[in-house]
Amino acid sequence: MLNKLKEMGKLDETVQALADARETLWINPRGMENTFDETITQKDIDETEARLQRFAPYIKKVFPETRESNGMIESPLKEVPKLQKALSDMLGYTHPGKLLLKCDSHLPVSGSVKARGGIHEVLKFAEEVATEAGALHEQDNYEILAEDRFRKLFSGYSVAVGSTGNLGLSIGIMSAQLGFDVTVHMSADARQWKKDLLRSRGARVIEYPDSYQKAVAEGRKEAAGNPKCHFVDDEGSLDLFLGYATAGRRLERQLTELSVPVDSEHPLFIYIPCGVGGAPGGVTYGIKKVFGENVHCFFAEPTHAPCMVLGMATGLHDGIAVEDIGLDGKTAADGLAVGRASRLVGKTMETLLDGISTIDDYKLYDYLKLLADTEGIYIEPSACATFDTIARVMQNQAYLEQYRLTDKIKTATHILWATGGSMVPEDEMNHYYSLASES
Ligand SMILES: *Cc1c(COP(=O)(O)O)cnc(C)c1O
User: Ligand 1, atom 10: nearest CA belongs to which residue?
Assistant: First the structure.
């Protein structure tokens, strides 16, 4: 395949670094265009937000941890000055401006960014089923969905999903709570505690010794023969994408509450870990819709599973997998262990995303420990993939000059999107912490 890429003129410096599993920062040559996929509009995102609002009374009732937020599944945006100093000391760069941590690691219900997309998709399916049955109307108080008659109705339908873990948790927990018959097809990377937790909530878990793609394929197969089964397609679902994209307006409100300006003099930088691309793609899309060219978005992937940067840098998107360039796809970042990018997201990001960095696995533990030691916040290894991306971007003079950012970084705000971790069992988290190279 490398020879073929060479013939096609696509074996550039970036692709060679990917093939060698070397850390790199790819800058998207089309990142400046800032144009949107016409088929996914702000209206679609607003309708998604309205749906989540309709369900809020139900969520509040069945998940008491959302009582304070009135049934909205949202996470804190925190200032992390000690991390900011420690990161710049560790990586040897100056970091003016402000650093914030978006704690999706602590999202209620399922403890990861997947709660945004996954829960939305299940709720939308439930709304369709209940509405078609004539049992639910938009103006109803959705609290009624907790009644037995709805659980009975939903038990005649099933939901299937393939996952490396966190999407399975979101889909499984939400589906089982509503009363759906839910099956989660888990790849080899999935952690045992996630499977145990899902089974304890009443979800069926099927384990595969293979990759994420295989788990998704099995889920698709199960659903194909059954008209009453809804398959959550992590490789291309628009409902997932829209759930993630609601993060844009919500972030805007949180930044306002913190009195953080975002405009041409105060650029915003977002860094978010990427697996198949759905979560970071949807979040980025929603944020770009709100802040346009004043926000700069970067993804981060493991050096052994850089499927999104491979797809975007070659322009082949889901037409190429990391195995095609000789990589094994294996990584300690279980949430990012994906060999082939989403067929929806890469194309959507072509004219929006600013760049993607790759990171060696062992560093994830160092950053996990650094965050724990400085701020007392614990997140999972996957969620730490972005921690050196800021330094790479700030040290990339060509990029800063091209975007006329050199003078503005003093007044910039950077957000590390912490994508998961609060549900990791304590002994497992202690183990992660112990794997850091310095102590
Ligand atoms: C799933 C996941 C991601 C990436 O989301 P994708 O939609 O797969 O790109 C990042 N971090 C964590 C912790 C995840 O579980």
Answer: 273
